[in-house]
Write a structure and sequence with these properties.
mainly beta, Glucose Permease (Domain IIA)
Length: about 280
């Protein structure tokens, strides 16, 4: 009898949907944040397709219900927004984007070409930007997408996400990642499982690795001293990606970690189990 009960429990466990998640990202519906939206009333038999501003949205099962995990772009205006849900019948779910003010950061960059690139640099930057945007917009169908991330390098957090940046007193785009001020040569590890979809040596980002975690959730690691992975390589949580460096536009050794979700850059802290204070 006991053996039959154990076999029944085991069979139930192995038939649970692969998309079940033990924790969702922190719900922070602000520009550069993540909106976690329960899809109340949507049948559980098949995962629905969800879109926001024309981009496919990550959907996961959590506590017996589908949830849309929506990346809110930094350019989003506060107010009413909505997602389109394609299930047995099309539906809209509304959510409110709240205002958020990000701090200002001023940096001194010694290499003037990293502030005012010359014409040849601009041609290179344009080519590389197309590659970077294509990688960050990648969508790969996947039943299970990890939403619980580890910090990819050991070190203090230096520049938070969303900073309004000035290089040599000239305004530049907001900081779309989280900086970890680790020493040069510090190992960088995969924050969760994924596949390497691109690598490169870019003008601003230096040595860079892109990891696809599935359903439009992408990690980008910049300024590496060395890349230790290959295109198409599958990674487990904790596998070595490379070493911290200061290649590209960097004022010192650090890891710049960007997370892209439905082609929106969002705060990586929202995927960590505990938000570090610094």
């Amino acid at each position: 009898m006991i053996r039959m009960i154990c076999l029944l429990l085991f069979s139930l466990l192995i038939t649970l949907p692969a998309s079940a998640n033990d924790r969702l990202p922190i719900h922070s519906p602000v520009p550069g944040g993540v909106a976690v939206i329960p899809l109340t009333g949507v049948a559980m038999d098949n995962a629905p397709q969800v879109h926001y501003q024309g981009n496919r949205v990550l959907v996961t099962r959590y506590e017996g219900q589908w949830h849309a995990v929506v990346g809110v772009p930094l350019s989003a205006k506060p107010g009413a927004h909505h997602i389109e849900v394609q299930a047995s019948a099309p539906r809209q779910f509304s959510f409110t984007v709240l205002p958020k003010d990000y701090e200002t950061q001023r940096l001194i960059v010694k290499n003037q070409r990293h502030v005012n690139p010359n014409p040849d640099d601009l041609k290179r930057i344009d080519r590389e930007q197309q590659q970077i945007l294509a990688a960050l917009a990648q969508w790969t169908p996947k039943n299970y997408v990890p939403l619980n991330f580890d910090l990819p390098a050991a070190g203090p957090l230096s520049s938070p996400f969303g900073l309004r940046r000035y290089f040599n007193d000239q305004p530049r785009n907001p900081h779309t990642g989280l900086d970890i001020a680790a020493a040069e040569g510090t190992p960088i590890t995969a924050p969760a499982e994924g596949v390497v979809i691109a690598t490169g040596d870019f003008f601003f980002n230096g040595n860079t690795v892109f990891i696809d975690h599935g359903q439009g959730l992408i990690s980008m690691f910049c300024h590496l001293q060395r890349i230790d992975v290959a295109l198409g390589q599958s990674l487990k949580r904790g596998d070595t990606v490379g070493l911290v460096g200061m290649t590209g536009r960097a004022t010192g050794p650090h890891l710049h970690w960007t997370i892209s979700l439905n082609n929106s850059r969002v705060d990586p802290k929202l995927f960590l189990p505990v938000i570090p204070d610094k």
